[in-house]
Write a structure and sequence with these properties.
single chain; about 80 residues; 3 helices; alpha+beta; 4 strands
Length: about 80
């Protein structure tokens, strides 16, 4: 099971990123959990300076903008 965390302050882009990832996970039938993390200390612990950011299995795969659906699909197939 993949563990996906969306890091961000709770802004619109962060919320939409989490929704898009959750929707894509469901469409692809991938066994994954999608959670949101808004705690600044936790976010800084990942070394992220701009949000939204995406962490998959404890590895930062994206930060600073909303990812495209094609990017998310690629992450899910790895």
């Amino acid at each position: 099971m993949k563990k996906i965390i969306v890091l961000g302050s709770g802004c619109t882009k962060c919320v939409k990123t989490a929704e898009l990832i959750a929707e894509t996970v469901k469409e692809q039938g991938v066994d994954a959990t999608v959670t949101k993390e808004t705690n600044p200390e936790v976010i800084m612990g990942y070394g992220v300076m701009s949000t939204p950011a995406v962490v998959i299995d404890e590895q930062v795969v994206h930060s600073g903008s909303m990812p495209q659906k094609a990017q998310i699909e690629a992450w899910l197939t790895k």
